[in-house]
């Protein structure tokens, strides 16, 4: 089969959308390796795909790869600087990374004898920063 260039581009766009949707589903199911693979595949076709970069950053952070997660989100923000969701997520990753590097967590952030719950810390940080960012946006409007 041969396709016209515009048909080929349209098929590639559909493929990348499917890969992004798979990554989102895999993230919700906590299948991080599969989600990362889907993001990498999408980015092989479209290196500047915002959704793939954002989801890859999220997967990497959930796997504890904060430096790589921050790099992925920075690239997404450079491509779309007005994306407030990416900005808030980047701040959350930076905060978690700083805490992780300093290892100065209060004892209330740990589960009994199982160690630190990074999912909990990540979520709490994202919520806190999201609230701050929302306050800034509201204040800027007034």
TrEMBL record:
One GO location term (cellular component): membrane
Domain of life per record: Eukaryota
Keyword Ribonucleoprotein tagged: no
Segments traversing the membrane: 84-100, 120-140
InterPro entries associated with the record: FKBP4/5/8-like, TPR-like_helical_dom_sf, TPR_rpt
GO BP, one annotated term: negative regulation of apoptotic process
GO MF term set: protein folding chaperone
Residue stretches of each TPR repeat: 50-83
Keywords for this protein: Membrane, TPR repeat, Transmembrane, Transmembrane helix
Family annotation (Pfam families): TPR_1
Name recorded for this polypeptide: Uncharacterized protein
Naturally occurring in which organism (per UniProt): Fundulus heteroclitus
Lineage, top ranks: Eukaryota, Metazoa, Chordata, Craniata, Vertebrata
